[in-house]
Amino acid sequence: xxxxxxxxxxxxxxxxxxxxxxxxxxxxxxxxxxxxxxxxxxxxxxxxxxxxxxxxxxxxxxxxxxxxxxxxxxxxxxxxxxxxxxxxxxxxxxxxxxxxxxxxxxxxxxxxxxxxxxxxxxxxxxxxxxxxxxxxxxxxxxxxxxxxxxxxxxxxxxxxxxxxxxxxxxxxxxxxxxxxxxxxxxxxxxxxxxxxxxxxxxxxxxxxxxxxxxxxxxxxxxxxxxxxxxxxxxxxxxxxxxxxxxxxxxxxxxxxxxxxxxxxxxxxxxxxxxxxxxxxxxxxxxxxxxxxxxxxxxxxxxxxxxxxxxxxxxxxxxxxxxxxxxxxxxxxxxx
Length: 335
What we know:
Blueprint: E1 3-7, E2 14-15, E3 18-19, E4 32-33, H1 50-65, H2 70-84, H3 112-115, H4 118-129, H5 140-148, H6 155-171, E5 174-178, E6 194-195, E7 209-212, E8 218-220, E9 225-235, E10 253-263, E11 268-274, E12 285-286, E13 291-294, E14 305-311, E15 321-322, H7 324-329
Antiparallel strand pairs: 1-5, 2-3, 4-5, 6-7, 7-14, 8-13, 9-10, 9-12, 10-11, 11-14, 14-15
Helix pairs in contact: 1-2, 1-4, 2-5, 2-6, 5-6
């Protein structure tokens, strides 16, 4: 039986000051475990690749070796998540930035070879961090912004919640919750923080919630059902068609690549802004926890995320939409 993971607070899993990453424990009943490579999808649980998890673990272990408090790890992990997606950038890839923090080589921080060493880069980040006056009392995202450059804006705050999930994973145990029995449900992007609330005062027409993550983060079917819609829905203000195979923007309208699943209880879930055309077809049966595509930024989108809607009837219209938090809570899914 496959399992998905939900973070809970627990004691640290450490060996001689170094983070230990045991393999996942799969069980029919909830069991203590930590994430590892998924045999089902070739990715780690919670939407993180194993290399990303290893980078976060390395950052945390260096903070421990330096006897820095927990918030130091959180600050550095949020910074790396925001700037490189916890990926060690090689010189000349997508930008001039190098290493896990995307720094430009210089006499002040190190040359390209040094910055390409994640351990060196993490150490240099902490060197810079402790020089920030009052960093211990500042919000973690604010410290990351100062170390990485004031011009980076709110990008660190947007990654802070996901960084906390990783910190929980690094420090403690998590529950393995079986989700693949018929009629059971799971989170669409386990471990990715939810935002962009349902029909808030600032967004009364927002009929779902948003999960912001990295491009390529797996999106899972929340329950058993049949795919009833797979479409590209994107156009400009004047009605002209807009490609779903490129990133959209706030000026583009529509869900981008999206799909809908009709579940066995006759409810509908809608998934928007896929990175590419979903690899499932209309009429195809899917199961809870099955990967149905990856997170992107097609359509009306300012960055990679999943817009997720839940509807109490088919076809799905604004009148049938309900708050996804309530919908999933009633089906045993914890956020």
